[in-house]
Design a protein that fits this description.
The longest helix has 25 residues. The radius of gyration is 24 Å and the shape is elongated. The relative contact order is 0.11. α3 runs parallel beside α4, α5 packs antiparallel against α9 and α9 runs parallel beside α14. By secondary structure, it is α/β, with parallel strands linked by helices. α4 links the parallel β6 and β7.
Length: 511
């Protein structure tokens, strides 16, 4: 993990591999942003012109490197684009700062230390830049050449992530600044842990292994943990989780993580889909659709990371995380299309497509979460390709049984920089899941498939409980190149939204 520190030192005298400054798109060309005054002065006030000569425009994500001026102890100045300038007297958008810091951190792979002289007007900006650095510096090299075991270890290409980042303008003794940095460190540590889990190959991360990781983290952070193995699941009647996992040599698990605070007045439940590998089961996925299906446990990874982050932050809210873990494989013992499963709630489900398995494991976990009567439940899942068709690869959908709660979740997601969009739950689509042999089928109308999945889950939420469903199928796994602070591979999406919901609940600002 990249070490994060604050400093009021002047940029010229700071020993580092690089000084990072911001540049924005102005009406007359690139504009050097606040925080870089000392650097600009060392170039005799001509830094913007020099950057323009080098081709810089200030566009978001643009990186321009130039030799540091005479007298600087750092040899390099790295200018990163923030996009357009803010309105008069307004500060730079937090997400713009996150993305710029992430781009710079990734560009400085192989460096030991960098000083970030980006615009910092308050503690919120410090948190944003710190998050961007820690998330942008992430890499997953466990299975390459030499595995990293510490900040001095190297990946196969000989370059380790940026080891240390100092935020210039942040005051080390200011309580708000220190708190913002500590929060950023806790959240990004756990979000990167979620990324690691998503990126881990399924031969090393099956349900049992995931459960063991959760147990170890729970012990470390004072979280109560309960793991139901296949025998306990059978005894309890968890037909959905057992049915999905029945075709695999790796047995399913249901993990319950409980963080409690003596000052808590509210209780949130987070439920995560944890299909550690999804072949589609008997309804086998076609060639070209299996290669990234290790990411089908991204929802459970997000829930796990969020609960641990909440514990590390010591928030005054009770949070229970439910990880519904199974591997969906075809075999002689696998659930078949046409089989009927009796769920933990007692309802029966006709399985028309074994590749619509996520809703089955979530149904059992949602009912288990409902039994504790929390103030709200939020489930997170890479649930449907239909949501990707609707919203693309970078935006997750939000469905809920309460419009105000759906809006609150959307606002929280946008606040932390996770693109999301509210989606409806049209009641007329429910009829398509009517079954002649069971209480409900696991498939309905093809059009609006993401909404149909949401309606299915709604059937397994306890009466009177506020609930939201996050379909993160699009942004959970980035198959393209890195951008902003988002790497290729597992992204850890929804972790920050869940943590923000917990913070708002603890403060009494959510419901």
């Amino acid at each position: 993990m990249t070490a994060l520190t604050l400093s009021t030192a002047a940029a010229p005298g700071l020993r580092a591999d690089a000084i990072v400054i911001g540049v924005a798109k102005g009406a007359q060309g690139p504009v050097v942003t606040p925080g870089a005054e000392a650097v600009d002065k060392a170039y005799d006030g001509r830094l913007a012109g020099i950057l323009e000569t080098l081709g810089a425009t200030g566009a978001e994500g643009e990186v321009t490197k130039l030799p540091a001026p005479a007298g600087f102890k750092a040899p390099l100045v790295l200018a990163v684009g923030l996009g357009g300038e803010p309105e008069k007297d307004a500060s730079y958008d937090a997400e713009a700062l996150r993305r710029a810091a992430g781009v710079a951190a990734r560009a400085l792979t192989g460096s030991k230390k960098a000083a970030f002289a980006l615009p910092l007007t308050d503690a919120g900006d410090i948190g944003a830049v710190a998050e961007g650095v820690a998330l942008g510096a992430y890499s997953f090299d466990t299975y390459k050449g030499t595995a990293r075991t510490g900040s001095d270890a190297k990946a196969k290409n000989g370059k380790a992530p940026l080891a240390e980042a100092t935020l210039l303008g942040g005051k080390p003794r200011d309580a708000a600044h220190k708190a913002a940095l500590a929060r950023a460190a806790a959240v990004t540590d756990e979000l990167n842990r979620a990324r690691d889990l998503v990126n881990t190959p399924p031969n090393d991360l099956n349900p049992e292994a995931f459960a063991a990781i959760a147990q170890a983290a729970a012990k470390e952070h004072g979280i109560k943990v309960q793991v139901l193995d296949e025998k306990a699941l059978a005894k309890g009647g968890y037909g959905g989780i057992l049915g999905v996992g029945s075709g695999s040599a790796s047995a399913p698990r249901l993990v319950k993580l409980s963080y409690t605070s003596s000052k808590a007045k509210k209780h949130l439940a987070f439920v995560g889909k944890g299909i550690t590998y999804d072949s589609g089961g008997i309804s086998l996925k076609p060639a070209g659709h299996n290669e990234t299906m290790k990411c089908d446990m991204s929802g459970a990874a997000a829930v796990f990371a969020a609960v641990v982050a909440v514990a590390r932050l010591g928030l005054d809210v009770n949070v229970t995380g439910w990880l519904a873990l199974a591997e969906n494989m075809p075999s002689g013992s696998a659930t078949r299309p046409g089989d009927v499963l009796r769920m933990y709630s007692g309802k029966t489900v006709e399985v028309l497509n074994t590749d619509a398995e996520g809703r089955l494991v979530l149904a059992d976990a949602l009912w288990a979460a409902s039994a504790e009567n929390p103030d709200a439940i939020v489930d997170v899942a890479t649930l449907t390709g239909a949501m990707m068709l609707a919203l693309g690869n970078r935006t997750f959908g939000i469905m809920a049984n309460d419009d105000a709660f759906r809006s609150a979740v959307h606002e929280a997601a946008e606040e932390v920089g996770e693109p999301a969009w509210p989606m409806p739950l049209p009641e007329h689509l429910r009829k398509g899941m009517d079954s002649p042999v069971a209480d409900i089928a696991n498939m309905g109308e093809r059009m609006g498939g993401g909404l149909v999945a949401g309606l299915f889950l709604k059937e397994f939420v306890g009466e009177g409980i506020t609930w939201a469903h996050l379909d993160i199928a699009g942004p959970a796994f980035n198959e393209g190149g890195p951008f902003g602070y988002t790497p290729k591979g597992g992204t850890g999406t929804a972790v920050r939204t869940l943590v923000r919901l917990a913070e708002l609940t603890a403060a009494g600002d959510l419901g």
